[in-house]
Design a protein that fits this description.
Blueprint (H helix, E strand, L loop, with lengths): L10 H20 L12 H6 L11 H12 L11 E2 L8 H13 L9 H17 L6 E5 L2 H16 L3 H4 L8 E6 L4 H9 L3 H4 E4 L9 H14 L2 E8 L11 H10 L3 E5 L13 H7 L4 E5 L11 E5 L2 H8 L33 H11 L1 H23 L4 E3 L7 E6 L6 H17 L4 E7 L2 E7 L7 H18 L1
Parallel strand pairs: 1-11, 3-4, 3-5, 5-6, 6-7
Antiparallel strand pairs: 2-8, 7-8, 9-10, 10-12, 11-12
The structure holds pyridoxal-5'-phosphate.
The site of pyridoxal-5'-phosphate has 14 residues, from helix 6.
Length: 479
């Protein structure tokens, strides 16, 4: 038997290495604008990741060198001012430091009398205040929007079907179904599959010209399902679709869900943060009335990955969906096993990292007004970019800008969609490969669009001028 540990043999050395890492990262973050947004990963780095499972020890500073040589230069680039791919937040220096603090105290924020439980609870309470949900609400921080949506849909299913936790879905007289639009994020389809609704049981209702769910078709389908003996459970509304940022008519959906006694869930992965925009009062108004909402702190609140949040407006329904206390998780009156309600009763996960800390520290550091300013800045930037596109005869805007997503393409006269699709895809790849900007893409009605989703606190107006100028330069070179 030995008394070895995994702690450093020399604490001064690890302290010095930690200081170096900190200096390197602050240099890296503060000079991000000077570097390309993205660069291709060379073959020798890809080969480096083929190294088999290490058996021998290696000095920590050498391991860090491997990070600086092979990982840091080939990051995705979401910290860069011209990263607008998919929907990814930018992160902040203090957010990153908070993750270091959280990892240092290594709290598993599931149960127990520990300060982290109170911080987590406070962040959930702040989230309820942020979204304007009622006092009866509860919530939980999760890995991201996918898990947040899944958690809400489990609560929706369990609160609408008696005894489903014990009997499952077998033997139900009426097959349960849920509703969303064809623009709803794919994670909702996965959730429907996982919770036994099935992808066919998730009715994907067509959208109107503004990519919002067609309310008349939604009601028609609910009535049809009721007539055919299905059990409608829930409507999943979009506050900001992933493709175009479209916001469904949330109040109309609330009207229908009340009329047919259905659960209303809002997928607001990024768009729920429009509660901070004076231009989107309808989002705040509807979220106050919804049964549940999912949103991400790592998207439009710019926190480092990963942290999402789900709120349920009925704590009883929430905990009844998940509570289960085996003997090894019993709560005591005093000591370590006392403390706040186990977070195991609010979701699927038991072990949970202390992701609340970066939210807690960041909100305190900046205050909510700064977040509102950033979000409104991003909305104004999306409108500015939309206008740049509309003002140029060679560019086409897919749809009017409603939030922070802009989809556009370059148009060559006399060319069909096939050529346009190929060439706009080429523009996207060259923008990325040349390190100029990282938009992503989508296909709407068979047409390929360059897609810019602005959840970036570092972007400034001239970044969008550059994007358009470079798009045109590359497009002309392709002609
Ligand atoms: C509207 C919407 N819903 C859900 C998700 C999934 O969120 P996450 O990637 O955090 O799991 C996304 C991701 O971009 C999204 O845009």
């Amino acid at each position: 038997m030995n008394d070895n540990t995994l702690d450093p043999k020399n604490w001064d050395e690890i302290r010095a290495l930690g200081h170096k890492m900190m200096d390197d990262m602050m240099d890296y973050l503060s000079t991000v604008r000077d570097r390309p947004v993205w660069q291709a990963i060379p073959d020798d780095t890809k080969d480096f990741f083929e190294e088999p499972l290490p058996q021998e020890s290696k000095d920590a500073s050498l391991v860090y060198n491997e990070f600086t040589q092979h990982i840091q230069p080939y990051a995705k680039g979401s910290i860069h001012p011209r990263f607008w791919a998919w929907v990814e937040g930018t992160g902040t220096p203090l957010g990153a430091l908070a993750d270091f603090l959280a990892s240092s105290i290594n709290s598993n924020v599931a149960i127990g009398e520990q300060a982290a439980m109170y911080v987590d609870q406070q962040v959930v309470n702040w989230s309820i205040q942020l979204m304007g949900m009622p006092d009866t609400s509860s919530g939980i921080l999760v890995s991201g929007g996918s898990m947040a949506n899944a958690t809400a849909l489990i609560v929706a299913r369990n609160s609408k079907i008696d005894d489903v936790r014990s009997t499952g879905l077998q033997g139900l007289k009426r097959r349960p179904v849920m509703y969303c639009s064809t623009e709803t994020h794919s994670c909702v389809i996965k959730s429907a599959e996982v919770i036994g609704i099935g992808s066919h049981g998730l009715r994907r209702i067509p959208v109107n010209a503004d990519f919002q769910i067609d309310i008349a078709l939604l009601e028609k389908k609910i009535i049809e399902d009721l007539d055919l003996g299905y059990q409608p459970l829930c409507v999943i509304a979009n506050a900001g679709t992933v493709n175009t940022g479209a916001i469904d008519d949330l109040m109309a959906i609330r009207g229908l869900t009340s009329k047919y006694d259905l659960w209303m869930h809002v997928d607001g992965a990024f768009g729920a943060l429009a509660v901070l925009s004076p231009d989107h009062k309808e989002v705040k108004e509807a979220i106050a009335l919804t049964d549940s909402v999912a949103f991400d702190y790592h998207k439009w609140m710019y926190m480092p990955y990963e942290v999402g949040c789900v709120l349920i407006n009925d704590k009883k329904a929430h905990t009844e969906a998940f509570n289960l206390t085996p003997n090894y998780l019993l709560k005591h009156e005093r000591g370590l096993a006392s403390g706040p309600e186990s977070l195991n009763s609010f979701g699927i996960e038991l072990s949970r990292g202390f992701k609340a800390l970066k939210v807690w520290m960041s909100i305190k550091e900046h205050g909510m007004q700064a977040y509102a300013d950033m979000i409104n800045k991003n909305i104004a930037q999306a409108n500015y970019l939309g206008n740049l596109v509309m003002d140029n005869d060679d560019l086409e805007l897919a749809t009017p800008v409603t939030l922070n997503v802009v989809c556009y393409r370059y148009m060559w006269s006399g060319m069909g969609d096939e050529v346009h699709n190929e060439r706009n895809k080429e523009i996207t790849m060259r923008l990325q490969e040349e390190g100029i900007a990282s938009p992503s893409s989508t296909v709407l009605d068979g047409k390929y669009y360059i897609r810019v989703a602005i959840t970036n606190h570092r972007s400034i107006k001239s970044d969008f001028d550059l994007l358009i100028n470079e798009t045109i330069r590359i497009a002309r070179a392709l002609s």
